[in-house]
Write a structure and sequence with these properties.
The complex is a heterodimer. Chain A is mostly beta strands. Chain A has helices spanning 2-20, 35-40, 100-103, and strands at 49-60, 70-82, 85-97, 108-121, 129-143, 150-164, 169-173, 176-186, 202-214. Chain A is elongated. By secondary structure, chain B is mainly α. Chain B has a 3-stranded mixed beta sheet, with helices on one face. Classes of the chains: A mainly beta, B mainly alpha.
Chain lengths: 215, 255
């Protein structure tokens, strides 16, 4: 558990260092002036950008002792449309195995999400370094073993930290934290596999590695 | 700079706090001492039946199901569902009549064509706390002998249920309670088969159950499951061998 929390801290703190290490423009100007300075800049119209990212990586329900670490994958469509603001649509699914005595069943907690929300670019437009913060709201699918599929309401927030390798290709890490099962949208109320009781809000953390394409 | 400093402070704090919120997808079951008297009574009845089956298993094989003959392993505290299962995690789940709610009690009364709620309750208690509890004990024997992983990967749910029920029937025969239990089962299943045959008879097969598990087992309305149970009971009464044969067949199944 401690290792998981340390991993979360390290990964979430990484973009702060990335911002501080921003090398600036052609070595002539000052280094990236930081968030406050950055958002006061008036970016040119060319900051409009479409990104499509394909991601795959680590997924965890953080504190549930009966559900182990797993993996997931998804696609992210983002459009920076005004200054440093943009929107991002994401579709992601994750699979986490039950462990301990529940693990003997050989089944998994499978969940996914379709979310939409604003994103904010924290690095200078045109920079090789990519740091975005985003928030999102959407529908979350839960595939329980013993019930019909369930759609619930959820929220997400996260960061994208990456490097633009060429004008059209980049690589990034995209840690995201989700809170879902906030309200039922469709299907029965979720019951847990262990005590068959109604389940409250669930959280999930994912850290996929993404291949990004810029247009 | 202030924004950056605030972010630098908030991110690690959030990272520490969020995991501490206890947002889990599994709940802890209450202990026996925390149960209502009706729930404790149900546990005691189920435990007595499982103990008798465990004694039969121990006498006839080198195995036992000691791990579930434990009042903390009989899970009855959930509400609003009609459910009886052994998923392989060394826990027997059985719904208690008092916890299922009036609408589901009325549904059960309809299943059995019981004249009164009291009659429906008596039939439910005998079926779920005794007979189906033993069939869950048979599943525990399967998990013990074959391993849950093997059972899940090599056996269909349809056959697991069918074999559990047939072996439970043999257990009652071996205990000298055949007339009592088999007669009772014929009595409760006769109205179920008559009422729901048209709806479910064509669905009573391995493939349909596998593809429509949530529909048949729907714990909010498991009428399909009740029909399937009665069909498995019918088959079991036709095909039942002695308990020795049933248990040894399961032990030799992987071969």
């Amino acid at each position: 558990m401690l290792a998981r929390m340390l991993a979360v801290i390290v990964l979430l703190a990484a973009p702060l260092r990335a911002v501080a290490d921003e090398p600036g423009v052609d070595g002539a100007g000052p280094d990236e002036p930081g968030l406050t300075g950055s958002i006061t800049l008036s970016p040119p119209a060319s900051t409009r950008e479409v990104r499509i990212a394909l991601g795959f990586g680590y997924s965890t329900l953080l504190v549930d002792p009966d559900v182990g670490e797993g993996y997931g994958g998804g696609i992210y469509l983002a459009y920076d449309f005004w200054k440093r603001l943009g929107v991002e649509l994401s579709v992601f699914a994750a699979r986490n195995p039950y462990v301990g005595q529940l693990g003997a069943i050989g089944t998994n907690f499978i969940g996914g999400n379709i979310t939409l929300g604003p994103s904010l670019r924290l690095t200078r437009p045109g920079s090789r370094f990519l740091v975005h913060a985003d928030l999102a709201i959407g529908t979350y699918l839960i595939v329980p073993g013993l019930q019909e599929n369930i759609w619930t309401l959820g929220l997400a927030g996260g960061l994208t930290v990456g490097l633009r390798l060429t004008s059209w290709l980049g690589l990034s890490l995209k840690p995201r934290y989700h809170l879902f099962n906030l309200a039922n949208i469709a299907g029965p109320e979720l019951r847990d596999l262990k005590a068959l009781m109604k389940v409250g809000v669930i959280d999930r953390m994912e850290i996929p590695l993404c291949l990004s394409f810029f247009f | 700079m202030r924004v950056r400093r605030a972010a630098a402070f908030l991110v690690p704090v959030l990272a520490l706090l969020l995991p501490a919120c206890g947002l889990t997808v599994t709940n802890e079951r209450p202990s026996y001492d925390e149960l209502d008297p009706e729930e404790q009574g149900a546990v005691n009845t189920i435990l007595a039946e499982l103990s008798r089956f465990n004694a039969q298993v121990s006498q006839r094989t080198k195995y036992n199901i000691d791990e579930i003959v434990d009042r903390e392993k009989i899970h009855v505290s959930f509400e609003g569902l009609i459910f009886s299962a052994n998923l392989g995690d060394q826990v027997i789940h059985v719904s208690v009549w008092e916890n299922i709610g009036p609408s589901k009690q009325a549904l059960i009364q309809t299943w059995f064509k019981a004249q009164t709620p009291a009659q429906a309750r008596a039939a439910y208690v005998k079926l779920f706390y005794q007979f189906l509890a033993v069939s869950q004990g048979v599943k525990q024997f399967m998990y013990k002998v074959l391993g849950p992983d093997w059972v899940y990967h090599h056996r269909s749910l349809f056959n697991v249920e069918k074999d559990s029920i047939r072996t439970a029937l043999s257990h009652y025969a071996a205990e000298g309670r055949k007339q009592e239990m088999w007669g009772f089962l014929k009595g409760v299943c006769s109205p179920v088969l008559a009422q729901y045959g048209e709806q479910f008879s064509s669905k009573f097969n391995k493939t349909y159950l596998q593809q429509h598990l949530a529909e048949i087992f729907d714990p909010d309305n498991p009428t399909g499951y009740m029909y399937f149970i009665c069909r498995w009971i019918d088959l079991g009464m036709l095909e039942a061998e002695g308990l020795n044969g049933e248990l040894s067949w399961l032990i030799e199944l992987p071969n």
